[in-house]
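Encode chain A's predicted structure.
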Amino acid sequence: MGLAEALAEEWRAQGETIKPGSMPLTQLANTAIDRIAPDPAAAIDELLAYAGSDLVCYRAETPLSLVQRQQDLWQPLLDWMAQRHDALLAVHSGIMPRPQPAAALAALRRHLTRLSPLGLAGLMAATQVCGSLVIALALAEGRVSPEEAFELAQLDETFQIERWGEDAEAAAHRRTIRQDILDLHRFLTLSAS
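Encoded structure for chain A:
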């Protein structure tokens, strides 16, 4: 099934009242048409701003078990990014933003300018949900599955839940993030075919 058929399926599922929240693919397609197609450069700049403070580039200093988990799970993505896109992003400890190398951002810009408005819309939404352009690109390019993208994006939260437990509100929020990533993966896959 192509993207057009998936969009039609979302519309057919609507009852007497249209519920935009139940039509994630349609919302993404509308964003691509209305917001991104007229000015793709603005979307690319927004994505590069995320790369400048990408989740996977900022590592904890303690505890050692979290530091090791971040290294084990996030570093392979950064290595992939350097190899696949010639974008060697710098890793920092702590949370204070630091600039990324200009050459890495230029390489990412070259890649992003080749994407369609649909691809940019899906990538932008995935970047926002994951807090990471690196994870979003890995999802879009099949480097990670939706479940892996969720685990990578939620690594810190999962670590805290393992230590302190999870409340109902946080669990509901994580379910929403997981579903958003699944929907975004479907959109990215359909818009690429």
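The CA atoms of residues 16 and 28 lie 22 Å apart.
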